[in-house]
User: Fold these one by one.
Assistant:
Number 1:
Amino acid sequence: MIAVVADLVEREMAYTTDSGVYFAVDRLSGYGALVHRSVEDLREGAGARVDVDDDKADPLDFALWKAAKEGEPAWDSPWGPGRPGWHIECVAMSLDLLGDGFDIHGGGDDLIFPHHENERAEALGCGRAFATHWVHNGMVQVGGEKMSKSLGNFTTLGDLLGAWDPRALRLLVLQTHYRRTMEIGSDTLDQAAAALGRLDTFADRATQANLPASVPDPAVVERFRSAMDDDLGTPAAVAVLFDAVRDANRAIDIEDDTGAAALAAAVTTLSSVLGLELGSRGSSVPDPEATEIDGLVADRSAAKAAGEYAEADRIRDALTARGIQLEDNPAGTTWRRS
């Protein structure tokens, strides 16, 4: 970090004051490009985001090295005892470990300015190439508020994965574009778990249908690829997956085994791309509703075997009202969510 600051000072991209060493933003062409704002626009709002310091030549100038204050940690440097500024450590680590022009720099959208803009400025000020692509994700929210430790509204991954199938959390993340705010809570996780159940039910149905081996439907794969190539459009890609499940179920219904096989192969392949292993064997956490439905299907089969057709019809009607479709075949009865 000291070496990077010294390089900036030597290149006259930074200056020293009694309070520390500051980067001079007006000496860097294109400062503000990451947030698509001019220096003048940023300067107007600097008072709300940047500490006021009469020693600075410009309100936008930011600290590279802060002079020591009583009671604060301090290290020796060419500019006296002090500590690094907020941004310099990221630049020093990135350039040292990844080298110039590394591919991707990620982070939350709340870090675009000033943190990421200032990282970029420091690297360019040293004559170094920095990140080729910047990827900024939206915040995770709970009840409409940003999830954070300070607000006490955070949930650990351990707690989530103890209560929901891990694949449901993965599907919830995939259904939200990475640049958009994502709401995580019981309702959204339950919805994701229900959607996952539809995928698992289809996978089991496709297995029981004994479809012929097939390559994935090329049209489905192409639609999926196009969605993912459009700024990692996972919500659109997931929609393609569910469309394929719908079309495959219809193909099975009309006994179009060839079409169903190609669509089922696409569902299996694309689910794997998304990190979702489908089918009853894919779930690492039992689905209480699925267990209950399996029990009701078994009760219906027992009622039919005993000649209690009214009871069998009652169970079937109750399941239909819950959006569960039954299919009787020589091997037994299968079910799926409609």
Number 2:
Amino acid sequence: MKQLIIFASGAGSNAARIIEHFQQNQKAQIALIVCNKPGAGVINIAEKANIPVLMIEKEPFFRGDGYVPQLQQYNPSLIVLAGFLWKIPNSIIQAFRGRIVNIHPALLPNYGGKGMYGKHVHEAVVAAGETKSGITIHYVDEHYDHGDTIFQTTCPVLPGDTADTLAQRIHQLEHQHFPVVIDSLI
């Protein structure tokens, strides 16, 4: 059975959908949740699903070994970034090159890069007067939101949309497509 590791920083709604998707899956399972934020909702989601949690700290993540030895113990087929807000260090990218995927709440290459996450992305899309937005699932490389695109899908940006109303539609796309795309990759 293939092993998946999910990195998440927040409430964990994407992680929850991925966990649900793989609970009855015969080819893969969620082996570990990696979190950098004590008290994050994803920790409770992991505990309810009996998935171990690795809490990480900034200093060893960026200036130490990046927790690579702990991650290698699980021999992951894929590392999934599901709302993880730290840039992945080179030590992890080198150890798992081509096996790390991220979801971004916009149509890359637009509205990506440092500081472009969550509400910031949706505010920028609305402020620019875009007529559509969407999600991009991509491989992770050494640059923010830069790796090869795996999947994109769109939704309209409606007149009168706010960052919050657009975010709701984007979350629906994430929940609908991210688990399925991950499944197709393994």
